[in-house]
Design a protein that fits this description.
By secondary structure, the protein is mainly alpha-helical. Helix content is 75%, strand content 0%. It is built from 14 helices and no strands.
Length: 285
């Protein structure tokens, strides 16, 4: 009886915020979806649906931008998982109080604008910049700037979205019981077996959340390709902005956005269905 009353009170208290979040989340998406099935420079609710913008997306090769965005987001997510795992493990199991210092240090990077941090890397990596300039000063020879290509865009994605993988991963690793790892050691398991059979499965909720966050954000990123990549690779987010601004073709921009939302939404729903959120939040089923 008491639990039922608490559940009703919880639903009642959360209703206003849930309604607000639902409207602010769904309203822009529904508006973009409506624009995507309108003819160019026409918007009226009485207009018959027109899917010509989606035909343009297919016929004019925009799928390449979608593919590049998803591929670079996937590579960046994979690199972040490998890079962040040792640090997250240390924060969850080894560093103790020093973990707070690391957390503050990583969070402080978010206090500076993403564009400013990326411009800092441009000044560091550009020809005549910090690295090439000092190298030429010391050796008398220079080298081409490692900018304006795909790998440096992936580097920018890894650099910018590291906190979004690190903290969920540390949370997931903290849920792995030390007793289970110690028992495996006592039974003669190798480090690889412990990682494969204990750490990865039990930390999977954190891995899924971190991978989902970084993949979704990286797939919709644009600043990295513009500043570090010099538009060597056009991402889908860049195409959406161009269609809405320079092109003044809102149906095309909306159709591109809906394609990206559909792909990201499918990935997100699949990942969420695999993650045990109750276990991650410490709630018993």
């Amino acid at each position: 009886m008491m639990q039922r009353r608490e559940r009703k009170l919880g639903l009642l208290y959360s209703a206003p915020l849930s309604l607000f979040l639902g409207l602010t989340f769904l309203a822009p998406i529904l508006l973009v979806a409506a624009f995507s099935i309108m003819p160019e420079k026409v918007f009226t609710l009485t207009q018959m649906p027109d899917f010509s913008a989606y035909r343009v997306v297919v016929e004019q090769g925009y799928w390449r931008s979608v593919a590049w965005s998803l591929f670079m987001a996937f590579v960046a997510t994979l690199i972040l998982l490998v890079v962040c795992w040792p640090l997250a493990f240390g924060m969850a199991k080894v560093f103790k109080r020093f973990s707070l210092v690391l957390t503050i240090g990583v969070v402080m990077t978010l206090f500076v604008s993403e564009n400013i941090r990326l411009f800092g890397w441009v000044l560091t990596l550009m020809k005549g910049g910090l690295i090439e300039g000092y190298w030429r000063h010391w050796t008398g020879t220079g080298f081409d700037a490692p900018l304006y290509n795909g790998p440096v865009i992936v580097f920018g994605l890894v650099y910018v979205y590291l906190p979004f993988m690190l903290f969920p991963l540390a949370q997931g690793i903290s849920m792995v019981p030390d007793d289970a790892r110690q028992a495996a050691y006592d039974l003669g398991a190798s480090r690889w077996q412990i990682l494969k059979e204990i750490d990865l499965p039990l930390a999977m909720p954190g891995i899924m959340v971190g991978a989902l966050l970084t993949f979704v954000l990286a797939a919709g990123a644009m600043a990295e390709s513009k500043l570090l990549g010099g538009r060597a690779i056009i991402t889908i987010a860049d195409e959406v902005q161009t269609a809405f601004t320079y092109g003044q073709n809102w149906p095309l921009g909306s159709a591109l956005a809906m394609v990206l939302i559909a792909i990201i939404g499918t990935v997100a729903i699949w990942a969420i269905s695999k993650a045990d959120l109750d276990k991650m939040m410490g709630r018993k089923s």
